[in-house]
Amino acid sequence: MNNRDTIQSILKTAKTGSLGTVGDDNVPFVSLVTVASMEPQSLILLLSSLAKHTQNLTYCSKCSLLLAESASESAHPLAGVRVTMTGNMARIKRGEDADARAIFLSTHPDASMYADFGDFGFFELRIKQAHLVAGFGRIQTLAASELLT
C-alpha cells in the first residue's frame, strides 16, 4: 500500500482524533473529538460552542488533527500508523449541512441524540497537508491535492 492509500485508509476508518487548536492566549490546546470522512480532502466534526476547542477555532481557524490506526493492545503505541492533518476548520451553516450531517451520523449514530442541540454544529476540516508516520523510514508529508485518487 502506498502512502496516499495508507492516509486515505486512516481517514476513512478513524472515528476519533486529537484536535489541536490555539486560542486568544496563544497556548496550544488538544482535545479528543469524533470525526467522519467527507472526502479525501476534508473531515467532518460535530462540535459544541461550549467546548474550549470550538472557542479557539473562533479565534483561529488553523488547526491540526491527529488520527491513528487502531493498534492491538500488545503493540507499542508508537509502532502504529498515524497521520496528522493540518488545515482550516470552518463551521457549516445550518441548512447547508445536510450532507455533512448524514455522513457524520452514519459514522456516529449515537450523536443524533445531541446533534440538534442549539450549541452544536457541524464543522469541516479542509486539509492542507497530511503528515504520515507509518514506521521506520516511512514518513511523508503530502499536500491535499496529492490525496486525490
TrEMBL record:
SUPFAM superfamilies: FMN-binding split barrel (SSF50475). Coiled coil: none annotated. GO terms for cellular component: cytoplasm. It comes from the Bacteria. Residues 10-144 form the CREG-like beta-barrel domain. PANTHER family: CELLULAR REPRESSOR OF E1A-STIMULATED GENES, ISOFORM A, CREG1 PROTEIN. This is Pyridoxamine 5'-phosphate oxidase.
